[in-house]
Design brief:
The complex is a heterodimer of chains A (456) and B (87).
Chain A: H1 2-12, E1 40-43, E2 53-55, E3 76-79, E4 82-84, E5 99-101, E6 115-120, E7 129-130, E8 133-134, E9 138-142, E10 151-152, E11 155-156, E12 161-166, E13 172-173, E14 176-185, E15 194-202, E16 218-225, E17 230-239, E18 243-253, E19 268-276, H2 281-297, H3 319-327, H4 331-346, H5 352-362, E20 372-377, E21 386-391, H6 393-406, E22 408-409, E23 414-415, H7 416-441, H8 447-455
Parallel strand pairs in A: 1-6, 13-19
Antiparallel strand pairs in A: 1-5, 2-4, 3-4, 6-9, 7-8, 10-11, 12-14, 14-17, 15-16, 15-18, 18-19, 20-21, 22-23
Helix pairs in contact in A: 2-4
Chain B: H1 2-18, E1 29-30, E2 33-34, H2 35-52, H3 54-80
Antiparallel strand pairs in B: 1-2
The chains are: A alpha+beta (456), B mainly alpha (87).
Chain lengths: 456, 87
């Protein structure tokens, strides 16, 4: 409902975004965003070695047409749209990681040329060949090098989707929070309303029990409609007080007016929950519960916990996995619940004292044992020459411990510990069992004591 | 997930009731004697021994198991009174 409300709000607000020019995408592995001026280079920094074909693509420069072509200096033609970059501008091979200059030819329009070409090669998804050219690296050319596309089987994901947005899930930030949204809009998806929105809400208030009046709960940072394709970026820095927050980014297909088309494949909403400096007990619970609900409902709004809920998809239903998903506790959520219990219940007065004792017992920290140094008179009577003697129990313990660890049984190659520890554990276990057994049965009590119990 | 949800709701209810109580971060100091500091220091020293001398560590785990038993017994007696087993 909140999602619907946000989308509705977003679509009412006038369109204010998208300055990127439209471009043709005949080949799904290419993304070219010509921008500004001067300086262009190929970033090979992520490559193990650089023998690469490169697929360039004519693009529509926008603003009056023209089809400027990216030409790579030193590149030779291999196949249509594929060039071999095995030589650079000075004639030598690209054999090492680094940044390389490329040439750029603009046939008709003074379109900016600053950009980065970032190469992708992920053999795990089987995209290291194209048009018969092997060892092929996918690339994109864009204004900034920081954006990251999702590499999917068959190439870079150029469907309309949320590429990334921050703060990331589980992030802990300072009070100045940077909200950054990167959306990719495929040209084929333009045509009807396409609403884009990013916002956040404060989730560390218990609205039933302790609502804090005047604190903004729900805040829309940006809302508008996509009218051109390509990359859309939104960045804003907002100062927020400490606490738990949930950021939400969405892109929605709408039909008439503000009615969202629920059957559109474009509808993509993602939530990231983050903490500004220090979360609160209620906020952590809210965060935890949100993830659980998303998993149960199998909502597409969950980014990190929706995967296991796919087992309950009626089209690909697997009863054993679905039941396991529904009833077997999930580790991270259970950990969060336990943590919440510790924070909100176990540490509270008066039973918190018991929990404090448990915490001290469970704390793995060790102490440095104190050492002492004393001066000893070593000369004959009348000679007060002294020497110092230092006693460091830490060294002695470490030495003894090292001996216990390193002594080996030559015949079987086992250490002293490997041989003896099972016996020590057996004795300890027997003592534990005996202690408990004798306590339950009362066998450790003296006969007189037992008799007095009977008399009483 | 359902189990998680039930646990989370249970924790939420308990937390809503009890989180207003003061939080215990340290054990009290009685007559100038810092019980918390003494316990932390003592356990730190003991663990220093245990890291080097593994039989001591094994024995300590046994001790913890017995402590857990008496803790459960104490809770059972608290809730069940004279009906607690072994009473």
């Amino acid at each position: 409902m909140v999602t619907l409300k946000r989308a509705l709000i977003g679509l009412v607000i006038p369109t204010t975004f998208l300055i990127m020019p439209a471009f043709a995408l005949a080949n799904t592995i290419v993304n070219i965003s010509p921008t500004v001026s001067s300086g262009k280079y190929v970033d090979f920094s992520t490559l193990p070695e650089a023998i690469h074909g490169i697929d360039d693509e004519n693009y529509d420069g926008g603003s009056g047409g023209g089809n400027p072509t990216v030409t790579l200096r030193g590149a030779s033609h291999v196949a249509d749209n594929v060039h071999d970059l095995r030589t650079n501008s000075s004639g030598g091979p690209f054999l090492s990681n680094g940044v390389y200059n490329i040439d750029y030819y603009n046939s008709s329009k003074a379109i900016g040329t600053t950009g980065y070409i970032t190469f992708f090669n992920d053999a795990s998804v089987g995209i290291n060949s194209l048009d018969g050219v092997t060892n092929f690296y996918w690339f994109k050319w864009e204004k900034t090098a920081s954006a990251t596309y999702t590499v999917v089987a068959g190439g870079i994901d150029l469907t309309t989707h949320i590429v990334s947005f921050t703060p990331l899930e589980g992030a802990i930030t300072s009070n100045d929070v940077t909200f950054a949204l990167h959306i990719y809009i495929n040209p084929d998806d333009l045509g009807t309303f396409l609403g884009v929105q990013i916002g956040y809400q404060n989730i560390d208030q218990n609205y039933l029990l302790s609502n804090i009046p005047g604190v903004t709960h729900d805040q829309v940072l940006f809302a508008g409609q996509a009218t051109t394709s390509g990359d859309f970026y939104y960045t804003a820095t907002t100062t927020l007080p400490d606490g738990n927050y949930r950021a939400q980014a969405s892109i929605k297909r709408t039909l008439i007016g503000t009615f969202i088309n629920p059957f559109s494949h474009i509808n993509d909403t993602q939530n990231h929950q983050f903490v500004v400096n220090q979360g609160t007990y209620i906020g952590n619970l809210n965060q935890n519960g949100f993830n659980e609900f998303n998993s149960i409902l199998g909502s597409t709004t969950a980014t990190s916990t929706a995967a296991s809920s796919i087992n309950c998809n009626p089209l690909t239903f697997a009863i054993n996995q679905c039941l396991a998903f529904l009833f077997i506790p999930g580790g991270p959520q259970l950990d969060n619940s336990i943590q919440s219990f510790q924070d909100g219940v176990a540490t509270r007065w008066p039973w918190g004292y018991f929990y404090r004792v448990y915490s001290i017992f469970a704390n793995p920290a060790t102490n440095t044992l104190p050492s002492f140094t004393t001066d000893i008179v070593i000369g004959p009577p009348g000679n007060l020459a002294t020497t110092s003697l230092t006693y460091d129990p830490g060294d002695m313990i470490a030495g003894a411990g090292s001996l216990l660890e390193t002594v080996h049984d030559n015949q079987h190659g086992k250490s002293f510990r490997e041989v003896m520890e099972p016996f020590v554990l057996l004795v300890v276990a027997l003592m534990v069992v005996f202690t408990i057994f004798s306590d339950i049965t009362g066998s450790h009590k003296h006969h007189q004591e037992q008799a007095s119990h009977k008399l009483s | 997930m359902i189990f998680n949800l039930i646990i989370n709701l249970f924790v939420l209810i308990l937390g809503s009731i009890f989180h207003r109580l003061p939080e215990v971060t340290t054990l009290p100091t009685i007559n100038g004697y810092d019980i918390d500091g003494a316990l932390v220091t003592g356990m730190g020293d003991l663990r220093t021994f245990m890291t080097a001398f593994w039989p001591l560590q094994d024995m300590f785990y046994g001790f913890l198991a017995i402590m857990a038993y008496y803790g459960i017994k104490m809770l059972a007696r608290l809730f069940l009174g004279h009906r607690a087993p072994g009473h």
